[in-house]
Write a structure and sequence with these properties.
InterPro entries: Agenet-like_dom, Agenet_dom_plant. Pfam families: Agenet (PF05641). It is a single chain. The chain is mainly beta. Helix content is about 5%, strand content about 45%. The chain folds into six domains: about 1-70 and about 130-170, no CATH class; about 85-125, SH3 type barrels (Roll), CATH 2.30.30; about 180-245, SH3 type barrels, CATH 2.30.30; about 260-320, SH3 type barrels; about 325-405, SH3 type barrels (Roll); about 420-490, SH3 type barrels, CATH 2.30.30. Strand 14 (about 200-210) and strand 15 (about 215-225) form a beta hairpin.
Length: about 500
């Protein structure tokens, strides 16, 4: 009994008779390590359920010792290459297969018993061999180093022993510990194995700069999401250092010419391409891997290679002096007057439009970059692209941008004829209180569309105007050039 291979509570993997190393192997827990025949044990499965209990209880069964093995120790998350002999977790167990192809988003195409299926990286592990040391072991050709670690067993012994053969060649990093290229919190770009300079490169943040093997780090993606979390959480994964590079510094917004070697932002990453044609409205036709697509100017950048801890070609700022933060000055046009206001990239502002259907509305946005003398690239806080996957970015003239208005003391109740901003369809629309209702509700009149809508008190704020570089807030319409008669006439 001293040589029984399992104890009560041990974590094991169990296969069916005759399946051998191909599996599937199902995770289980030992309940009773040995029966009188010394060839069986009682286990409780962790993934298989009892078919006679409507699937509500896990399966408990007696298995042969020769069809069980210890649960392999967990190892560092790693990438696999084509041809790797792996175990893939599917149908509640681990089955042996071969990597056929490396796909995007940490997926692999795995071949198993004549079939191919896609598998997530975290559902793969290197296949390892379990060998039985019984009377048949003498017939198996084993390397001398494996035999020498075990004493020969008596011919009558029916107990089973296991050898787990690990064939993990050590990964060698190009960086000694004192020269690890990244620190926690660094902004980086990560590509997939084998993609090289063509990309795509995905923006990410370093969570843990190095593992014991000195060749990997843990990152959290900024654009890729975890496919197993319904797309609600960003993807966190371990990547090889050789597949990561620093995030290139932002450069002055520039125009491109036909033939330029560029990186284009599409499908949540930066991919290398070539400018084929200059289109209207700051758009370009870009060729990428035999395909052509239109790209906005702000989604392009000159292609650069990260070589010997520097960017090639160097940035314009690097040729003269260290990069300094640039302060942008917007010229805000309001009431036919121009006033200067200082903003830095990242400043939250409000943006309006003369486009039909949007007049009179201000949308919260963030300054992304400066384009030319009087245009800016902004990213809206609530407006999204047509496919609903990303926040909307667009070029906007300075005359349609203003700072966010300051917060005013809470208003207990708005009055008739008081000018207000109403939160409607993700924007603030200028209107006038035409009726006060019960239950903290109001009817608001909009002169731009000549219509009235009902709003809750919580969706209103006092109206303010940005004039000569300062906020002016009045409460009655006639303070802005209207009287009661004028207001009534407009509603007719």
């Amino acid at each position: 009994m001293s040589q029984i291979p399992f104890n009560k509570g041990d974590q094991v993997e169990v296969t069916r008779p005759g399946h051998g190393s191909t599996g599937p192997y199902y995770p289980a827990t030992v309940l009773r390590p040995v029966f009188k025949d010394k060839a069986h044990m009682l286990v409780q499965h962790q993934t298989l359920t009892n078919p006679n209990a409507d699937g509500s209880k896990t399966l408990t069964e007696i298995v042969e010792l020769r069809n069980a093995r210890p649960m392999p120790p967990k190892e560092l998350y790693e990438f696999f290459k084509v041809g790797d002999d792996v175990d893939a977790y599917r149908d509640k167990g681990w089955s042996r297969g071969t990597v056929r192809e490396i796909l995007e988003n940490s997926k692999y195409l795995v071949a198993f018993q004549g079939q191919e299926f896609q598998c997530q990286q975290f559902n793969l592990r290197l296949h390892r061999l379990k060998m039985l040391l019984d009377d048949a072991l003498s017939k198996v050709e084993c390397p001398l180093q494996h035999r020498s670690h075990h004493l020969p067993l008596p011919p009558s012994s029916r107990y089973l022993h296991f050898i787990i053969l690990f064939s993990l060649p050590p990964r060698v990093s190009n960086f000694p510990m004192s020269q690890i290229p990244f620190n926690k919190g660094d902004q980086v770009e990560v590509t997939r194995p084998g993609h090289g300079s063509t990309g795509p490169y995905y923006p990410a943040t370093v969570l843990r700069p190095v593992f014991k093997d000195k060749a990997h780090m843990l990152v959290q993606h900024q654009t890729l999401t975890n496919p197993n979390a319904d797309g609600s959480k960003t993807l966190t994964e371990i990547v090889e250092l050789r597949n990561a590079r620093p995030m290139p510094p932002k450069e002055l917004y520039e125009f491109f010419k036909v033939g330029d070697d560029v990186d284009a932002y599409r499908d949540k990453g930066w991919s290398r391409g070539t400018v084929r044609e200059i289109l209207e409205n700051s758009k370009y036709l870009v060729a990428f891997q035999g395909q052509e697509f239109q790209c906005q100017q702000f989604n392009l950048r000159l292609h650069r290679e990260w070589e010997d801890d520097s960017w090639v070609p160097v940035f314009q700022e690097e040729k003269t002096s260290p990069v300094k933060s640039r302060k942008l000055v917007l010229k805000i046009k309001c009431s036919n007057r121009t006033s200067g206001a200082s903003f830095e990239n990242g400043t939250v502002v409000e943006v309006s439009s003369d486009e039909e259907g949007y007049k009179g509305a201000w949308y919260t946005a963030k300054i992304i970059d400066h384009i030319g003398s009087d245009k800016f690239l902004v990213e809206y806080e609530h407006l999204v692209t047509d496919d609903g996957t990303e926040l909307l970015r667009e070029e906007t003239c300075a005359s349609y941008i203003r700072p966010c208005p300051p917060r005013l003391p809470p208003v207990a109740q708005f009055k008739v004829l008081q000018k207000v901003d109403t939160l409607y369809n993700d924007g603030w629309w200028e209107g006038t209180i035409s009726k006060v209702l019960s239950g903290s509700k109001y009817v608001v009149y909009f002169s731009t569309t000549n219509e009235e809508l009902e709003f809750k008190h919580s969706n209103l704020r006092p109206h303010q105007d940005w004039i000569n570089g300062r906020w002016i807030h009045g409460y009655m319409v006639n303070k802005y050039g209207y009287d009661h008669k004028e207001f009534v006439d407009k509603r007719k």
